[in-house]
Amino acid sequence: MANRDEILANFQACSGIEDVGEAFMYLEAANWNLLEALQVVMPQEATTPATPTQPPPLHPASQPPVVISVDSSPELLLPPPIPPLPSATPTTPDHTNPATSTTTCTTSTTTAPVMDINIQVLCGGASEGSTFPLELPGSTTVSDLRTLLHQLVGITPCNQVLEGFKTVVDDSTVITPDILPESRTLSLNTQPAVPYHNYYERLNGAHRSSGGSGASEYLLLIHDEAEGKDFSLRFPGTRLIREVKGDVHDLTGIPVRHQQWTGWPPNIDQENATLASSGISKQHHLTVRKAVKERTPRTQRKAAANSSISSASAAGPSTRVGGSSGVGTSDAGDDSSGEEFEDAAELLHDDDDFLDMMDIPAARKAHTLIPADIEDEVMGVLHFCEEFRARYGSITPAFYQGSLEDALKESVHFPAKTRRLLAVYLHHDSSVLSNVFCSQALCQPSVVDYLSANFLVWGWDLTHEANKARFLNLVTTHFGSIAASSVRSFSTDKLPALLIITRTRGVIEVLSVIHGNSVLDEVLTSLVHATEMFEEQRATEVAEEEARQAREAVKAEQDAAYLESLKADRAKAAAKKQAEMEELQERERAESLKQQEDAFKEAVRASLETDLPEEPEPDCPDPVATLRFRIPGGQTFIRNFLANTTLQVLLNFLHVKGYPADEYKCLQSWPRRDVSSLDASKTLMDYKLYPQETLNIEER
């Protein structure tokens, strides 16, 4: 499908067609051949030789032109715009330039005569409706004139329509006064772009346009009031009006005898007159409708039929049409055979009346598979399944009885390993192929079994416009605009159709289309081919899905390991944080105790400092002991005490200085002893610390 998308994009870029549906129609007609589709849309872009030559005819020359039905949308009927005409008088072709003229004058004594003609531009563009003069040498051919007009107005020679010549001309015809009109005015128009419906019609249309380049052509714009459709038909001037009516019968289905026309000139023989002799313009508007004929009451028709049968039986075989009773009888039968045939056709057209005349009860008309007034999609599908089984028997495909969305979920939306193709059957009761396709192909046991084994089948009826519009909305929603354009382009003669739906890399697409003109073998071959393509795609997607699942499993294991590691790290972090919090709490508790202890020591120290006696003055008459203290670190300090001071005062002094007796030892050098462990009630003189002594303070 990616290749088709690329071809579609290239075709739109080259042709300038923005409508996806129209571009899709051209590519389908050319079997998705880009060059063939571009040749249909832009035939004038082909290589144009200096002197155009006619291609070999595709049909015998005596064969009348085939009618081509054309969509009457305005954008298709309008010719391509052309640039404005030059203000100066155009010059003659290249072979009449001054240099050539001089050469001609020197080599010939006779100068070719010059003709003055007028060119009236009839096509769209800035020059529409204008007329300009031209001077042509006497040896100018129609091909030279086309080349000159190409240079002036920009219309390629192969797309020019020159009208006004008295006789039929081709590109090699030399333009002389004898073939020009009295006014010497030629009209210039362009060929409208005609969309062909298929490849063979394109070839026939190209043959007719190339083979009739010199013939006078008429463009009939016909409006069908019964169906509300418009047709653009191009015929040669030699076409009989009755032949035109026959062609319209092929397009509209209205018999010639029931056609009622508006737009033909009065007082003309519409049976034997040609378009050229009718007096209509080259582009003429007509309206056709089906004539409503007053019908004879049923009882009178029945009585007339019985009377005819009785008279025919009494007359015997000699009065039958085409009998052997003589020439006169045979001629009379030939004259009346057409009318009798028409009366019989009209009689058979009314089933109820015909059956009523035969005293047989009228049969019930077949219902459509989905009524026009259905509102619910599921109810429409159920009605479709019931009517289809009642119409075609018990051996039918097992249609899915649900909505299209549910059918997609049950088939193509499954994983690749269990995915199935979806076959969408589109029915249309107005197609002559419907009953043949269903009875001879779709409902054959081989097709039914193959569909049941490999497809999920869903059906819909497009007979009514409301049901067709509903289905197009469903296709646009679920399949995309390209698929909707393809279904919209299906004409009635292309139905019924079997759409094979698949999903590739998440995108739902139409894998193939089986039309109603396919026989049993072609249907089976197409189904098998679609299944093989689907299996190849499915195998690729299954391998990709398994590889993806393997990658996802590895990733899941890695994620699980990462989560376990993350959980362990988080547990460690939580334990560490808890330990830090406990340590912090312990530190805070220790600090609190230390602060309390320090506060207690400070209180004790302050109390001792308050009770500590003053240091004796130097001129004190009492005996004074001078003590030198050496603290840790080597520093020393001196304090004087009265000799009769108790040892407790000394220890209190050291406590005040920060060396309490329970943490520090106070050592005397000779005799070596710990003073802080002695009886604190004795005096310094008792311990021979008078008149002076050195004490060492050490930690316990």
Outline the structure in words.
- This protein has 700 residues and is of the alpha+beta class.
- Among the domains are: 111-190, Phosphatidylinositol 3-kinase Catalytic Subunit, Chain A, domain 1 (Ubiquitin-like (UB roll), Roll); 377-544, Glutaredoxin, CATH 3.40.30; 624-699, Phosphatidylinositol 3-kinase Catalytic Subunit, Chain A, domain 1 (Ubiquitin-like (UB roll), Roll).
- 43% of the residues lie in helices and 16% in strands.
- It has 20 helices and 17 strands.
- The chain has helices at 2-15, 20-29, 34-41, 74-77, 98-107, 142-153, 199-211, 241-252, 275-278, 298-315, 327-349, 351-357, 377-392, 404-409, 433-442, 445-454, 465-478, 481-488, 520-611, 647-656, and strands at residues 114-121, 131-137, 160-163, 185-190, 217-224, 229-236, 259-262, 283-290, 421-427, 455-461, 497-504, 507-515, 624-630, 636-642, 664-668, 673-674, 692-699.
- The protein has a five-stranded mixed β-sheet with strand order 14-13-17-15-16, with no helix packed on it. Strands 2-1-4-3 form a four-stranded mixed β-sheet, with no helix packed on it. Strands 6-5-8-7 form a four-stranded mixed β-sheet.
- A hairpin with a 2-residue loop joins strand 11 (497-504) and strand 12 (507-515).
- Helix 2 (20-29) packs across helix 18.
- The protein is elongated and about 180 Å long.
